[in-house]
From TrEMBL:
The protein's name: Sortase
Protein source organism: Streptomyces caeruleatus
Chain coiled-coil ranges: none
Pfam family, one: Sortase
Keyword Transmembrane helix belongs to the record: yes
Length: 221
């Protein structure tokens, strides 16, 4: 999916198929597979960021995308999160495999996709809680547009993103392309994804997913 070098039609076809498979897995993941084993989160639904949002919020312009470099750490200063980033693939259902529960303080990055800071949409997933305690993305739904997210990369660079949207997307009628597709072509975008809504003890699943959308607005060394 991240192979942008192949000029031939065959390369575009392979990329398109990979994207379709990923979207199918994300659709399944969004509808059924992100539940955790015990719910301790508050209910959230709809446009979470709209709560208390100023009528007009001037967000900074997008920065030019960076080259490829592997993510090492995710920092969200407003939530006091400093989390190691680990590469993840797809699970047996074709969805992004979140870090194991014994690494609930880690964030998983879909390693076959876009690298954070490069052009396109990079996908990061994390648990909201475990059976016994909050996990790395427990407070993710409290982020607001304008908040800063930073990704430290293995070339020493720092990719700084600005939050533009926070949504709690119900699993009923879930649209993976709308949720995880690019908002504007040519930008470097980031999606942070975790469980949300309420915890259904009958199905042992959450009823929604919290999706934070951000875009690259600054860089540093």
């Amino acid at each position: 999916m991240s192979d942008h070098e192949r000029p031939a039609h065959g390369g575009r076809l392979v990329m398109g198929l990979a994207w379709a498979v990923l979207l199918l897995g994300l659709w399944l993941w969004g509808r059924e597979l992100t539940g955790v084993r015990q719910g301790i989160s508050a209910a959230v639904s709809g446009d979470v960021a709209a709560v208390g949002r100023p009528p007009r919020l001037d967000l900074p312009p997008a920065a030019h995308p960076l080259g490829d470099a592997l993510p090492q750490r995710l920092d969200i200063p407003g939530l006091k999160i400093q989390a190691p980033v680990v590469a993840r693939g797809l699970d047996a259902h074709g969805a992004i495999a979140a870090p194991p529960y014994d690494q609930a303080a880690h964030v998983g990055w879909y390693a076959a996709g876009v690298k954070p800071g490069a052009a396109g949409v990079a996908l990061l997933v994390g648990h909201v809680d475990t059976q016994t305690r909050p996990a790395v993305f427990y407070k993710l739904s409290t982020l607001r547009p304008g908040a800063t997210i930073r990704v430290l990369r293995d070339d020493g660079s720092l990719a700084e993103f600005t939050v533009e949207d926070v949504q709690a997307v119900p699993r009923a009628g879930f649209d993976a392309h709308q949720a995880y597709g690019p908002h504007h072509s040519g930008r470097s975008e980031l999606r942070l994804i975790t469980c949300g809504g309420t915890f259904d003890r009958t199905t042992q699943r959450y009823t929604a997913n919290v999706i934070v959308s951000a875009y690259l607005t600054g860089t540093g060394l």
